[in-house]
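REQUEST
  id: r-88c1
  op: predict_structure
  target: Alkylphosphonate utilization protein
  payload:
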Amino acid sequence: MAKDANGVTLNAGDSVSVIKDLKVKGAQSTIKRGTTIKNIRLTNKNDEIEAKIDKCGVIVLKTCFLKKI
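RESPONSE
  id: r-88c1
  status: 200
  body:
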């Protein structure tokens, strides 16, 4: 069961917001704080989700850097 930084349970298809600027490995871009990510997908690991982000493609993010909207 994936939980965000506030302990709220995340479900597939939820929208989340980034709470900290994140550097993306392999890309020369940064995901800025406050970026909204829609339609997340859950992975096998409870502390990770998959998300499609403009300019970065599909990436895996740790849930400790996200909060549910």
